[in-house]
Design a protein that fits this description.
Helices cover 24% and strands 22% of the residues. By secondary structure, it is α/β, with parallel strands linked by helices. It has a single domain, classed as Alkaline Phosphatase, subunit A. A hairpin with a 2-residue loop joins strand 6 and strand 7.
């Protein structure tokens, strides 16, 4: 969708600059087309045993499966309802890893008594805490996702040791489902800016992986030209939605990005972050 709105048709987006492009099969043991939360849990848990219930949180997340020392984990959510949020699942009985390990920042109106963050103030990064965006009033957040993420990341990155920073977005899908093409394009443009910012800022860090995964892909047909295209731009008409797709794109750049080339199941995405090449010896005289 970005391609059709560029002033320069030859401009390359940061997604297209990714070192490796992969495809992930979006299914698990119980659903051929799992919902977006289940798909993301499958990626984060490294498991296809996802039932969309509290049982899912009895499994260990991928940051607990690394051979490295413990990770500092940050999860930034935008466009995600309380029900779809990981924060909304805190009442589930299970492992404490998902609740006590990460720091959460969510772009939603704060709940009574909750901690908050604002891009013009010092951002809290305490492990296990949840911070709500002070700029969100009702259904509107006045701070942009890019501004918020920059502020949060600049504080989070000061933590010592290994770090995993996860950004979850559902606002692009929400706009598509409403056929609000202007909002969808605006959000996709914002996501591209976020990816570009990380892409440019991580060039000097040879130990950093930038990974963009997706889930619950929606396949639809664009109109061909002329009046139909104009009406599509204006009101979302003349597009045909189909069932969610069975395979979704993955973009990777930086350290270990080669692990994400090819086609694989979505529950392999998390574990592939920690794949390391193994040296093999070949005895050319042993036939």
């Amino acid at each position: 969708m970005l391609r059709f709105n560029l002033q320069n048709a030859n401009k390359i987006t940061s997604f297209e600059k990714a070192t490796c492009l992969g495809k992930a099969w979006s299914f698990n043991l119980y659903d051929l087309r799992p919902d977006i939360k289940s798909s993301f849990l499958s990626q984060t848990m490294g498991s296809n045993n996802i039932k969309a219930s509290c049982e899912d949180f009895k499994q260990a997340p991928v940051w607990k499966r690394s051979d490295e020392k413990s990770y500092s984990v940050g999860i930034f959510e935008m466009g995600i309802s309380e029900e779809e949020s990981f924060v909304g699942s805190k009442n589930c009985e299970g492992r404490d890893d998902f609740w006590n390990d990460p720091t959460y920042w969510v772009m939603r109106p704060q709940v009574p008594g909750a901690k908050t963050f604002h891009y013009q103030e010092q951002v809290g990064i305490e492990q296990g805490d949840v911070y709500y965006d002070k700029s969100c009033k009702g259904k509107i957040c006045f701070a942009s996702p890019l501004v918020n993420i920059k502020k949060v990341w600049e504080k989070f990155v000061t933590k010592s040791g290994m770090k995993m920073f996860i950004v979850r977005d559902q606002s692009y899908l929400n706009a598509l489902m409403k056929k609000d093409i202007a909002a969808a394009r605006e959000m996709l443009d914002e996501l591209e800016k976020i990816h570009f910012w990380f892409y440019e800022n991580m060039k000097s860090r040879n130990n950093t992986l930038i990974l963009v995964s997706s889930s619950n892909p929606r396949e639809f047909e664009f109109p061909k030209e002329g009046k139909e295209w104009a009406e599509f731009e204006k009101s979302g008409n003349h597009i045909i939605f189909r069932n969610s797709g069975l395979i979704s794109p993955v973009f990777a750049s930086g350290a270990s990005s080669e692990n994400f080339c090819g086609v694989y199941n979505e529950n392999e995405i998390g574990p592939r972050v920690f794949w390391k090449p193994k040296r093999k010896k070949f005895d050319i005289f042993n036939f």
